[in-house]
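Dear support,

I submitted the protein below through the web form. The confirmation email said the job was done, but the results page showed an empty box. After a refresh the structure appeared. I'm attaching both so you can tell me whether what I see now is the final result or a partial one.
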Amino acid sequence: MRRRTRAACWAAVVTVLIACTGCTGGGEGDDGDASPGPGERGPARTLRVLASSELSDMKPVLDAAREATGITVRPTYVGTLDGAELISSGKADGAYDAVWLSSNDYLRLDPAVGSKISSETQVMTSPVALGVKAATVSRLGWNPSTVTWSQVHRAVADGKLTYGMTDPVRSNSGFSALVSVASGLSGAQAALTEGQINEATPRLREFFAGQELTSGSSGWLASAYKRRGTVDAMVNYESVLLSLNRDEGGDAGSRLTVIRPKDGVVTADYPFTLLTSADDEAREAGRDLTEYLRGPEAQQAITTLTLRRPVVTSVKPAEGIGREGRRELPFPGSRSVADGLLDAYENKLRRPSRTVYVLDTSGSMKGSRLARLKSALGELTGDFREREEVTLMPFGSAVKQIRTRTVDPGDPSAAVAALDSDIAALSAQGDTAIYSSLKEAYEVIGAPRNSDPSFTSIVLMTDGENTAGDAAAGFDSFYRALPAGQRRTPVFPILFGDSDRRELTDIATLTGGRLFDANKGSLDGAFEEIRGYQ
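What the results page shows now:
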């Protein structure tokens, strides 16, 4: 099969990241050029930082840092593993001054990366943990302080526990969870080996059969978990689980019991990392910023606001953060073992994916837009997983045709060749029937298959507004009348060309999906980013 390497998978989003350099979580119009306060802060400076997506919650702390030091952080958010690949390739050189990922463990597996890093300063930590509904903990008879990964596996294998987890190929919380579970179930006392992974594969397959939610980011997973309501547990960072509890307030029935398995976890340590390609001024600003962030006031703000653990021992962790010691599980010792574990998860361990691509091929797509769509889809075919079911549903004034292909592990190239042929045959004509086509996509998916519980989703790509068929109100009524099982299928719209942001945002909100913007980067990058949610 023409399966892409990880380098090829993330290359499609590089254009998006470089184009977004300078994107900030700060307020509009704040360019960091304000004059320093009298004797209280240094000269106004700006740091361009490639940051893990979950660090968007650090905005209040970084705003305070700007006031205290004159340093403005301009973050560009990305998945941790994608960020690591961007640095390894050299694409970050010159585009960013620093990188702030949840972990540099995967990055360090590349022997060439040492020459790209100037310094690393740990700012805070958060271990991977398991958040379980209180009623489920009681039903299972668990003592939260003594639960092991083997107990969790047994509950899942017996059909007594379901959970959500992020995609380990794109999210560090998912990768850390994958390493934690694989280490726990293999009995590894040191860094995982290929042999231990192979030995644990039957139990890992049983474990991942219980995964009912996937996501490309920790924050969206928490939102999807709340929306679904029927999933028993969630594997995520301790800080995300505690934040979810805080958001629930006094609703004890919705709060999660946060379990840190006794046999060990992998911890995110959030090192602020200066790049050797940064100039002297940026390096000095980076050192000043980390000095501020490790100060008692900032450390207290970090743990209070984000529920991550402080790294300064004199600062008391926020309420709810576990105090008991837990073994820190070792990271895989080589890139080949790490990538082998990821490949096994993608193609053998996890539930298969089932995706309907609802593709606008109306008259407005003629020319370069249709060519871009064909190119993006052509790149995507090399990334489809074994056992994945892919349906192409091009539409104009109505759905033009429906083609479904399944990637057979015994002959994956056959499905890829068929998809390439389907893509090449796409042509542009007609009006734009967005809502009628979405209705048909839900009808094609039908009720959930108990014998094959896939991760099911719909991807909508359109370059314009709805001009034919049903209106928005008709689709809303149709969707709300669907059985609960069918309403669990999210729509991930892609903003492209002249499409209506509000129209597509409403579709994503209604169905529990997420909007992806190809106008700020590339269509290839939007399709590739959605892969983490399928």
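Response: this is the final, complete result; the empty box was a page-load delay. Residues 265 and 329 are 5 Å apart (CA to CA).
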